[in-house]
Design brief:
Chain A is an alpha/beta fold. Chain A has helices at 2-7, 21-30, 52-67, 79-92, 101-112, 126-131, 133-141, 155-160, 168-183, 200-207, 216-230, 251-262, 274-277; strands spanning 11-15, 36-40, 73-76, 96-98, 120-124, 147-151, 188-191, 212-215, 243-247, 269-271.
Chain lengths: 288, 288
């Protein structure tokens, strides 16, 4: 009976803002019956330019908030938070925690296994690249693998501004960031930030057809499915999962931009005052 | 005696991050003897994409922190905070508060008074433009004045990334944002964000020699001088003012990037844990 109750609990997902809705989109694709509670910490976005310590603190706030909804799993739908805080979150949360970095790295190694070009590129925010998390994760699978990393600070604001794949600014910025990567004969390029899948067509155009583009969000969604299945925690429903969204900033902006990220109408967005998020949870002082 | 003590108190300056250091640079130019205490709220930067309510809350936190250092004046070196929170700050602070919007607007009206082209353009963050603060301020001086506003969300991250005036990305982004403005035959263009003065040469190249560029930070510095002089609060020293900096995020990053904004070496940066900044000051609940 208890197990039955657990199965129907929601999946808790958090992100620094809107980007994580691309992960929600992937989750809904593979697990359409699951309820999702989403927190976008838009009042403190972007995490990608902050120190790792600050990102860790914010992530603990976010997870603490989601735990009030008794989720069966927490998904860190933000590469920066996954890179900076996954271990701390795992220690803190009483349920499984899935991030985006490990699944993204695993998939990149997998798709290049039989390719002639095995080098893997990673593009992400400044903080994610600085953390070295993708490099470590890839090297866990293959200690010899060539890995090239490039931070792309302008891509998040470019996506949030609503610029799309065929905007000349998008293409010139991508050419600028990816110039080195183009020379490296990559087998795969990890889109290590949840905003980047919205620029997939432009990135594909710049990198050419031989480079497999790995969406870390899609990889994370598959990992969530695998883990829930292993723990026998998949919902018994196969469709009609509900999405409940919270944001720490303007719900109107969340609604307006959210649809582009989530690929579906966002019906219900509630505001969480940031004070409430920052209520001192006991773990705060324990973070290294 | 009390007046003498008051004169030698520092000027408190806050900003959402590093941008306000361009205002510090202008302050130091006109008032080289004044001590300055600067707070850059880098853990919660950028303010420009947040709701006005959130910006108001953050601004009150920042001012509260500066008041501990018993400043003789508070300078809001952030256009977004000036636009959203100036009235609330004036009510809250026991000393004079100077923002960037009113001085910038006044100067734009002044320099176009005898020009054939009197229209004024304003470029700023999303939140500043949305607030309508520049439009209102200009119309206070001249109710008929044509005003054109354009938000430029990419310019802050572009400057923070270290791109400079001759970077092709900078020029193509500016051409994109300023296309409409170029057609309007402006007399002046207000750089309504403290980051923009770092792109002055590129903006001048795009707008041409007939458009006067108004740095809101420089205008604010002149206003600070005027007000301190009126209240007989100018320091008796004419050189050697000290700059003490605080940041809510990584001091190392502040130091590294700060020099570009401030035009001088930043010797001393101390970290303020964000908890401390968010200590509940009584005014928080009173903000409308």
């Amino acid at each position: 009976m208890e197990a039955q109750v657990m199965k129907e609990r929601p999946i808790g997902v958090f992100d620094s803002g809107l980007g994580g809705l691309t992960v929600v989109r992937e989750l809904t694709r593979v697990l359409p019956g699951e309820d999702i509670v989403y927190l976008g910490d838009s009042a403190r976005v972007p995490y990608g330019i902050r120190s790792l310590e600050t990102v860790r603190r914010f992530s603990m706030d976010d997870a603490s908030f989601l735990l009030r909804y008794e989720p069966k799993m927490i998904v860190v739908a933000c590469n920066t938070a996954s890179a900076a805080a996954l271990d701390a979150l795992k220690e803190f949360c009483p349920v499984e925690v899935v991030g985006t970095v490990l699944p993204g790295a695993a998939e990149a190694v997998e798709v290049t296994r039989d390719k002639e070009n095995k080098a893997v590129g990673v593009i992400a925010t400044e903080a994610t690249i600085q953390s070295g998390a993708y490099l470590r994760a890839i090297r866990q699978h293959d200690g010899e693998r060539a890995v090239y990393a490039q931070s792309c600070p302008l891509l998040v604001p470019i996506v949030e501004e609503g610029r799309s794949d065929d905007d000349p600014i998008v293409l010139s910025v991508l050419h600028d960031y990816l110039r080195e990567m183009q020379r490296k004969r990559l087998g795969a390029l990890i889109l290590g930030c949840t905003h980047y899948p919205l620029l997939t067509n432009a990135i594909a155009k710049v990198m050419g057809p031989d480079v497999s583009l790995i969406s870390s969000g899609r990889a994370a969604a598959k990992e969530v499915q695998r883990r829930l299945s292993l723990s026998n925690l998949l919902s018994s429903r196969s469709y009609g999962g509900r999405l409940r969204c919270f944001t720490t900033d303007n719900p109107e902006r969340f609604n307006r931009l959210g649809e582009r990220f989530g690929g579906r109408r966002i019906d219900q967005v509630e505001r969480v005052p940031i004070d409430e998020l920052e209520s001192r949870h006991p773990a705060t002082t324990e973070i290294p």
